[in-house]
Amino acid sequence: MKQRPFVIVSNDDGLSAKGIQSLIGILSPICDLLVVAPDGPRSGKSCAMTTDVPVTLRRIKSVPHLRVYSCSGTPTDCVKLAIAQLLKQRRPDLVVTGINHGDNSSINSHYSGTMGAAYEGVMHGVPAVAFSLCDFNPDADFEPLRPYIVDIVFKAITMGMPMLTCLNVNFPKAPKFKGVRVCRMARTHWENEFTKARRPGLPGAHVYWLTGERVDDEPQAEDTDAWALTHGYVAITPETLDVTAHGLVDVLRDVF
User: What does residue 167 show for φ and ψ, rounded to 5 degrees?
Assistant: First the structure.
């Protein structure tokens, strides 16, 4: 490439999280970055937008090749503002989100604010890649991801991704990886999602803590993201925003 790629960066763990700071450290030597991230954790926000209060945007840093902003809103708000208010003359080549602290494969993709930020870029016609490490530790080691992130970002830019698509990239918690597998989303579900407890001082009232465990409905299927991660591979799942059940269209036309 004759000029450095221009990339918008966001996440859902907040600007101070080690994951996004590692991502900035990996990409800033090779890309022009516009970073807009929440001012605190926004995990599980998916594509949520802030509609009831104004959103605050604060410039943190502005140096050659790197501009950083903190946002009071959701990950989706961050990317919306980046594209609508902070772009100058140049259109971004890619939206990159993460690095998320935790697994965003299979069903988790639908809840993830990391993915929500990536989807927002795609909605604006900008291809996107979301990165997640299956390690919730705030001090997780992101260094093994470095060569993979650089390779995936440059390939995503040069290949020319189709409209309405993005890449959901998940790394297993491991010091090194067996390789990369392009996968489909596993069929999974959550069980025992809430822990119930009484609310002190309020008779008859209870509180519910979100918890639970994810269950793989097809653990023997070797073409899924869940299998790849379990077996030490980096899982790349291409996703599309077109949620039409195309196989059902002709059936419904006959019915209706």
Answer: -110, 130
Mean per-residue pLDDT of the chain: 93
Region label for 85, one of left (φ > 0), alpha (ψ between -120 and 50) or beta (otherwise) = alpha
Other CB atoms within 10 A of residue 91 CB:
11
Q: How confident is the model at residue 141 (pLDDT cuts 50, 70, 90)?
A: very high
Query: What is the tens place of the pLDDT at every residue in 153-167?
Result: 999 999 989 999 999
Ranges of each domain in the chain: 6-183+221-250, 187-219
Domain 6-183+221-250: give its CATH code. 3.40.1210.10
**How many angstroms separate the CA atoms of 73 and 147, rounded?**
31
Phi, psi for residue 150 in degrees, rounded to 5? -60, -45
User: What proportion of the chain, given as a percentage, has pLDDT over 90?
Assistant: 82
Q: Which two tokens stand for residue 92?
A: 């971004």
Number of C-beta neighbours around residue 15 at 10 A: 22
CA atoms of 179 and 87, how far apart (whole Å): 36
